[in-house]
């Protein structure tokens, strides 16, 4: 056992986050870990007897009863998905403490975890919307302050044709793209420390090559080193989260398709479009799982189920199918 069972929870949270950092989570994910841990810990400190400041809360006070009470307070007014995410974070935290021999066991199985349905895919609406978006981005419009169509098309194509997440796009380096012509591949640092390798078709390869050529012309060939970030802003600096989101949203506006982007989807709508089209073209859940870097088949299966529903709606709308109703005898 750890020789300091009264060590403060805040100190151990920092140790846990340091250990998690070796998995290379995105800054957004690491911030979410910290927020979930400190918020619930603060509630536990308030509910302890006697109440304590968070900085003075010892880890050995985190009994199943106190953690349950803190999570009950935390769950009030929060969505089930937020509570479930916090539960997972705390479960990982206690698993770390058990492995480090700081605590004898993990109390989280005694804390109720809400059942959260898998999120419904939110692809771009409209059959030709992805193609229209790419065509619009490829045009250098005069009203743009500093148009860079090659870069914009590359970003959209990586999301639409490779299904990359925002954090995965930002983590790409120039040398993430490798392989011989015709056998090109992209090495992706996936979510949860799950790397994957994606095949890159010649058309996407040509788009990326055009972007890198344009970047060399803008900032010099020496700026396109193998270890350099693949995606940069108009000043040649690594593209960041806010800048990437703004880039995609501005592409939506220029293409006039803002009304076809599902609410709250932003860049993720492009990834969902990639997955939905895979399902429409007959890909199985296992293939979708590998290409998108899902942790389980259940997430991938949702795309197939949604596509199946869309197909049924299309059949139901068929005029010939509706005409069958007129051929049936009236019920007695």
Give structural notes.
The chain is mainly α. The protein has two domains: 102 residues, Orthogonal Bundle (DNA polymerase, domain 1), CATH 1.10.150.130; 188 residues, hpI Integrase, Chain A (Orthogonal Bundle). The chain contains 13 helices and three strands. Helix 1 packs antiparallel against helix 2, helix 2 packs across helix 4 and helix 10 crosses helix 12. The mean pLDDT is 85.
What portion of residues is helical? 40-55%
Based on CA atoms alone, the radius of gyration comes out at 25 Å
User: CATH superfamily assignment of the largest domain?
Assistant: Intergrase catalytic core
Q: So what's the oligomer here?
A: single chain
Question: How many structural domains can be distinguished in the coordinates?
Answer: 2
Q: Main sheet: which strands, in order across?
A: 1-2-3
So how many helices? 13
Write the layout of secondary structure elements.
Layout: H1 9-21, H2 27-47, H3 64-75, H4 80-99, H5 129-137, H6 149-162, H7 166-171, E1 177-178, E2 185-188, E3 196-199, H8 202-219, H9 241-255, H10 268-280, H11 285-292, H12 297-317, H13 319-323
Antiparallel strand pairs: 1-2, 2-3
Helix pairs in contact: 1-2, 2-3, 2-4, 5-6, 5-9, 6-8, 6-10, 10-12, 11-12
Domain Core-binding (CB): 7-98
Family: Belongs to the 'phage' integrase family.
Protein name: Integrase
């Amino acid at each position: 056992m750890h020789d300091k069972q009264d060590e403060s929870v805040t100190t151990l949270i920092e140790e846990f986050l340091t250990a998690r950092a070796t998995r290379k989570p995105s800054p957004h994910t690491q911030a979410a870990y910290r927020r979930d841990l400190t918020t619930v810990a603060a509630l536990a400190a308030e509910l302890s007897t006697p109440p304590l400041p968070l900085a003075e809360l010892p880890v050995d006070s985190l009994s199943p009863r106190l953690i349950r009470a803190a999570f009950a307070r935390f769950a009030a007014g929060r969505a089930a998905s937020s509570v479930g995410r916090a539960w997972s974070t705390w479960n990982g935290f206690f698993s770390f403490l058990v492995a480090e021999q700081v605590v004898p066991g993990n109390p989280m199985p005694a804390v109720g975890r809400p059942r959260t349905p898998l999120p419904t895919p939110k692809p771009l609406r409209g059959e030709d919307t992805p193609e229209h978006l790419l065509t619009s981005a490829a045009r250098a419009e005069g009203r743009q302050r500093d148009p860079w169509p090659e870069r914009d098309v590359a970003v959209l194509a990586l999301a639409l044709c490779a299904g990359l997440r925002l954090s995965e796009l930002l983590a790409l380096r120039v040398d993430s793209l490798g392989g011989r012509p015709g056998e090109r591949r992209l090495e992706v640092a996936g979510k949860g420390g799950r790397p994957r390798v994606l095949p890159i078709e010649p058309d996407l390869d040509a788009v990326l090559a055009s972007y890198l050529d344009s970047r060399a012309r803008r900032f010099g060939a020496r700026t396109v080193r193998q270890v350099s970030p693949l995606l940069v802003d108009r000043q040649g600096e690594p593209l960041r989260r806010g800048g990437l989101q703004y880039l995609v949203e501005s592409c939506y506006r220029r293409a006039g398709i803002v009304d076809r982007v599902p609410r709250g989807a932003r860049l993720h709508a492009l990834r969902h479009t990639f997955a939905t089209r895979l399902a429409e073209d007959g890909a199985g859940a296992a293939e979708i799982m590998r290409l998108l870097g899902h942790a389980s088949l259940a997430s991938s299966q949702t795309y197939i189920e949604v596509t199946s529903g869309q197909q049924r709606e299309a059949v139901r709308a068929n005029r010939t199918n509706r005409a069958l109703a007129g051929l049936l005898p009236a019920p007695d």
